[in-house]
Amino acid sequence: MALAGLPSLLRQLSRRLCARRRTCTPAMAPPRCFAVELPDSTLAHFALGDTGDLLDPRLAAQLGPPGRSYSLCVPLTPGGGCGPRVQAARMLQRLLLQLCRGPWQQWRLFRYGPGGQAGAVQHGFLLRDPGDHPDTRGSLLELLGSCPEAARPHLGEFELDAQGLLRHRLWTLQGDRQVQVDCACVLPVPAPQLHPVLPDLLNSVVFTDRDAAKAVLEECITFIPEAQKVLDLVDQCPKQIQKGKFKVIVIEGLDATGKTTVTQSLSKSLKAVLLQSPPSCISQWRKTFDNQPTIIRRAFYSLGNYLVASKIAEESTKSPVIVDRYWHSTATYAIATEVSGGLQYLPPAHHPVYQWPGDLLKPDLVLLLTMSPEERVQRLQGRGLEKTKEETELEANSVFRQKVEMTYQRMENPSCLLVDASPSKEVVLETVLQLIQSAGQ
């Protein structure tokens, strides 16, 4: 009799296990992997599934008690082109401005799928309430309730259960009610070979051609009137241009490394035309675009390079041309901003993101002015000028500065030749002139 009843008992047990699993996470749900930037500039990875396991102690300290942590990820609305990315980037920036006023700590969070597919990364935040205030979840849900429903971010709450497993509960608002719509166990996963955002860099913040950058600003016309003006200027530039017979030399470098002094001295010594990127025809709109998310800001600067290229083609038929910053700086700051964490997470050398756009006029030589961080800060203090957003970040975050410097050095086709800008301006100019002469031999 006991054996006869065994199949029925097993079926009951199976149904209970399945029911318990469904309360934790939907059956056959695709893996949901996350990467969070920890305070020491390293990344920790975890996934959500139907079973739990021991986490990296550093990650457990960020997600578990004491205190309580929350995840906030901005979904990508369905649709082709770059429209969903622009919308998600604007939503992320809006949330960042509002979250800065809260009592919680915050770190960058990425949600990504297996295999590193392009377009699969969702950006967001890991929020930690050290005091585990009972009203925190409600405050966050209230914040999300003010967002458009179609683009409303997901709010997750981390909680340690009675069995010692860390769970991730997904919450939403239904009217005035807080409703739990999912629950999953937090489990460790190995780090992917490359940073999860790398597949999304090309044509989202580093543009491989003019049309890709234009597509972003075309999505912005309704809320940034200046976007149409930039597009009109770009459309007036011919797509097929060639450099003239005279040399084109680009000077790159961080602020206060002496670019202005070198470019002005070079233009006098070589009787060259001095150009700047972005050019004067759009520089009056820099502040407008500097206040936009990275994808919009970098599209603006990328199109500025094409406007400069048109002028380079014209001027290089008559004299040498010196350019104060060009494509390398546009791409470098985009990569260093988007790739969170330390130097080890940058795209590896020879990655396609370091390659020059195929439709952008190429210079003969790119010189990168360098100096020690201490001396550069001294020069900045002596200038007394208003700091740009990027310069403020460079000064406050040594990891960001190191990433910018390393990215500059990995640029290819053409690569940057390093110039020590620490000596006197006369010595630096002589060094630069020698490098130009050597490149022409």
Automatic annotation (TrEMBL):
Organism: Nannospalax galili (Northern Israeli blind subterranean mole rat)
Keywords: ATP-binding, Coiled coil, Kinase, Mitochondrion, Nucleotide-binding, Pyrimidine biosynthesis, Transferase, Transit peptide
Cited InterPro entries: P-loop_NTPase (IPR027417), Thymidylate_kin-like_dom (IPR039430), UMP-CMP_kinase_2 (IPR014505)
Localization in the cell: Mitochondrion
Pfam families documented for this protein: Thymidylate_kin
Protein name (database record): UMP-CMP kinase 2, mitochondrial
Gene3D superfamilies given in the database record: P-loop containing nucleotide triphosphate hydrolases
Catalytic EC class: transferase
Family: Belongs to the thymidylate kinase family.
GO MF term list: ATP binding; dTMP kinase activity; nucleoside diphosphate kinase activity; UMP kinase activity
Catalysed reaction equations from the record: a ribonucleoside 5'-diphosphate + ATP = a ribonucleoside 5'-triphosphate + ADP; a 2'-deoxyribonucleoside 5'-diphosphate + ATP = a 2'-deoxyribonucleoside 5'-triphosphate + ADP; CMP + ATP = CDP + ADP; dCMP + ATP = dCDP + ADP
GO cellular component entries: mitochondrion; nucleoplasm
PANTHER family per record: THYMIDYLATE KINASE (PTHR10344), UMP-CMP KINASE 2, MITOCHONDRIAL (PTHR10344:SF4)
GO terms, biological process: cellular response to lipopolysaccharide; dTDP biosynthetic process; dTTP biosynthetic process; dUDP biosynthetic process
EC number of the protein: 2.7.4.14, 2.7.4.6
Ranges of residues in domain Thymidylate kinase-like: 251-430
